[in-house]
Amino acid sequence: MAVGIGLVLFTFYCAYNAFLEATQLELLVTGAANPWEAFTAVLGPLVKSCIMVMFLGVMGWAGVTLTSRGAQLFRTPLPKAPARAPPRPLPSAPAPPPSAPPTAYPGVESA
Questions:
Q1: Which has the least CB within 10 A, 23, 31, 34, 72?
Q2: pTM
């Protein structure tokens, strides 16, 4: 979240500096001036400005996305632990010993 907020602040800082350092375009429009020459003279700074605006837009979008993801981490509740079975109670008295197996089976002859 801090990275997103930092990126958004940096974007606004860059945009503010670009605004302060904006170049002034001075067009001298006279009846003898060729419009094509005026267009080509202005095209370079316009393209540079468009690239800067797109760059700042992508930086702002990334910062807002990172900030919203960070805010989602704070808003999501922690997953609940699965319910455990209650512990079995301990026997109060020891269990009786198992009975001895029969030594002879009825109807079977021993060898």
A1: 31
A2: 0.50
